[in-house]
Design a protein that fits this description.
The chain is α+β, with helices and mostly antiparallel strands. It has seven helices and seven strands. The strands form two sheets. Strands 1, 2, 3, 6 and 7 form a five-stranded antiparallel β-sheet that branches. Strands 4-5 form a two-stranded antiparallel sheet. The longest helix has 24 residues, at 13-36. It is extended, with a radius of gyration of 27 Å. It starts with 12 loop residues before the first helix and ends with a helix.
């Protein structure tokens, strides 16, 4: 779009030239900011269909309407409405999860790096206790963590230094992995497990409406009170 010179017709020519030159960098900056707002897919969330499936509320039915990852993170609410994403609360929910993902806030499995065919393997490992903690570390003490490592990859000492504990999972007892959507691997006693992408894994359940919800709460309670008074008077 070419700059509109008409809006500058009362300004000195030197100032007009300066303003016109300054508009190009502003447009470039705006485009750069918009591009930066589109996060990269992750190993656990590689495409739009997976994202919509994970957040639940039957939004995966709209996957064909939003095939491109860039579109998923750039479409406005009105544009989603034109594509047929209904009702409005579904669009609000999608935009809310989209913003969380953009900030790096995921549900279970979102931080997994080694994922193949929508399945990630996790296992229990022992590492030296964290000496940087506020509590006094016992010399030689070890702690158990749940990490994301493929089953055919040996966990060497150098590999341990690279690994990070998986969010949302912990070790119960001697070596049992516990957490949402964890499937123990047979024959491992619970020390190895898998996490598979499933419909609604990240879904935030809608709260139950009480007395008609916030919009109708006062009206509903007033009618109930009047009804109680009427019955009390006989």
């Amino acid at each position: 779009m070419k700059p509109n010179r008409a809006k500058f017709h009362r300004l000195p020519s030197s100032l007009i030239s300066c303003l016109l030159r300054s508009q190009a960098p502003v447009r470039q900056l705006h485009q750069q900011i918009s591009a930066n707002q589109i996060p990269s897919p992750t190993p656990f969330v590689p495409d739009t269909k997976t994202f919509l499936s994970l957040i639940g509320r039957n939004l995966s039915q709209h996957a064909a309407k939003i095939p491109a990852w860039e579109s998923l993170f750039s479409l406005k609410s009105l544009q989603l409405r034109k594509l047929g994403v209904e009702p409005a609360r579904s669009r609000r929910y999608l935009l809310w999860w989209r913003d969380k993902f953009r900030k790096g806030v995921y549900g279970i499995g979102g931080d997994l790096k080694d994922v193949k065919d929508s399945v990630a393997h996790v296992r229990v490992v022992e590492v030296p206790a964290d000496r940087s903690s506020r509590t006094l570390a016992v010399p030689g003490a070890m702690k158990k963590l749940v990490v994301n490592v493929p089953p055919d990859v040996p966990v060497t000492e150098s590999k341990l230094r690279e690994l990070r504990p998986v969010d949302g999972l912990k070790v119960r007892g001697a070596h049992t992995i516990v957490g949402p959507y964890v499937e123990p691997v047979k024959g491992t006693g619970g020390s190895m497990a898998t996490i598979k992408v499933q419909e609604g894994m990240w879904e935030q359940k809608r709260g139950q409406k009480i007395d008609g919800g916030e919009r109708r709460k006062v009206q509903v309670r007033r009618k109930r009170k009047l009804e109680e008074i009427r019955k009390a008077r006989g």
